[in-house]
Amino acid sequence: MVAGCSAAPNAKPPISQEVVQPEEISFWNPFGGGEGEFVEQLIRDFNASQTSVYVKQLRLESNEYYVKLSTALSSGKGPDVAVAHVDRISPYIKAKQIMPLDGLAAETGFRFDEIESSNVQSVSYNGKPYAVPLDTHFHVLYYNKDILGKAGLLQTDGTPMLGEATPEGFVRMLEQIAARVPGVQPIAVNTPYFQEPFLNLYYEAGGDLLTPDMSRAAIHNEKALRVLTFYQELYAKRLADLSDRTPWDSFHSGKAALWFGGVWEAGHHLSEKSLPVGLMPLPPIFGSSAHWGSSHTLVVPSYVTKEKQKAAMAFMSYFSETGSMLWGQAGHVPANKAVLQSAAYRQLPYRSMFIEAKQDVKFAPRTDKYRAIFTALSEDLQSIVLGGLDPEQGLAALEKKINEIITN
């Protein structure tokens, strides 16, 4: 009988050539500019560090990010992990669109006690953390040493001579820059996102967006009026350019002496060797050191499958524990305790000052109506600043609109 094709009795089974594919997850974020470069590097580093998870990034423009994220969360189709500012997560929690992370953290070995307690508290509802906090971020005063030197406003130690810490004193200092260094803006104001420079000084003045019980608006008052009048004076006296749509670039290209900019821009501005830049806390020209601030967090949508949940947690753990150093180089103040307390982070330029300034940050009120309130605030302030609406009338209309949002 002729032998068939059966294997010999002692033959070894073939070695499996199967390759296990990594779990691919989609990561949505609004990070652009210099900030975005750090995120891209962080994602590349994570993907190269292991073979179990592959992160694919989708970066959306900041002005459209939350509209698209909210739509995705509502429809159940979108990212596996996403960035959300701390003041935006409350409605997602109320709608059960993002998941609590305590169980997933316990499963994967992630420890929330390794994150600054104030950051953990900011993302916790009913005792459960719903996000991994990455940082605290806020504004500082950037200044161009060459321009201030020409204006006679630079001290021998390289710090600015800002004069009297009042609105009037600050204006006089800007007028000196205008007189001695023509052709540059004394201060570039973030008019495109005017709610941030407004809130900086409004919080300095002791203002609040809502009453302590968050039942009513608290924006139509003398403090807000003084801040708006101050900014209008800057524009009227051409100490700031109302039509400048990219004030961050104006400062970076040496066309502005001062700039209230985010700490997240520190890595970008300080990396420009030709830019003689210095940083300091925002001057307390309206009476206190309180200022606007927020925090980036990472959330996992409720529709995400179990395997992708674990993959998302692996990425979030990496971002917090390893990537926070790179994130700190971008300028953010890390929420991870080990990174925040490390010599490597604290030796970066101005970071000790950032850590101190972080203590004076005033976060947004914890209400699930904040997204609508923020939209109303942003739009109505634009109407006052760019549309020429009378500040008194504008604030009255804004307060009425916010009260309607709260009531409804």
Distance between the termini: 89 Å
Structural class: alpha/beta
User: Multimeric state of these chains?
Assistant: single chain
Shape: globular
What is the average of the pLDDT values? 94
The main pleated sheet reads as: 7 strands, mixed
Beta-strand content: 15-25%
Radius of gyration: 25 Å
Low-confidence stretches: 1-9
Helix content: 40-55%
Strand segment tally: 14
In DSSP terms, counting alpha (H) and pi (I) runs of 4 or more, how many helices? 18
Question: Could you please describe the fold and organization of this structure?
Answer:
The chain is of the alpha/beta class and 408 residues long. The chain is built from 18 helices and 14 strands. The chain has helices at residues 33-49, 62-75, 89-94, 102-108, 117-122, 145-150, 167-180, 195-204, 222-236, 247-252, 266-270, 306-321, 323-330, 337-340, 343-346, 351-358, 370-385, 391-407, and strands spanning 23-29, 53-59, 81-85, 124-125, 128-129, 132-133, 135-144, 185-188, 256-262, 277-280, 291-294, 296-299, 333-334, 361-362. The strands form three sheets. Strands 7, 8, 9, 10, 11, 13 and 14 form a seven-stranded mixed β-sheet that branches. α1 links the parallel β1 (23-29) and β2. It is globular, with a radius of gyration of 25 Å.
Features of this protein?
408 residues; alpha/beta; seven-stranded mixed sheet; 44% helix; globular
SSE inventory with pairings:
Elements: E1 23-29, H1 33-49, E2 53-59, H2 62-75, E3 81-85, H3 89-94, H4 102-108, H5 117-122, E4 124-125, E5 128-129, E6 132-133, E7 135-144, H6 145-150, H7 167-180, E8 185-188, H8 195-204, H9 222-236, H10 247-252, E9 256-262, H11 266-270, E10 277-280, E11 291-294, E12 296-299, H12 306-321, H13 323-330, E13 333-334, H14 337-340, H15 343-346, H16 351-358, E14 361-362, H17 370-385, H18 391-407
Parallel strand pairs: 1-2, 1-3, 8-9, 11-14
Antiparallel strand pairs: 3-12, 4-5, 6-12, 7-9, 7-10, 7-11, 7-13
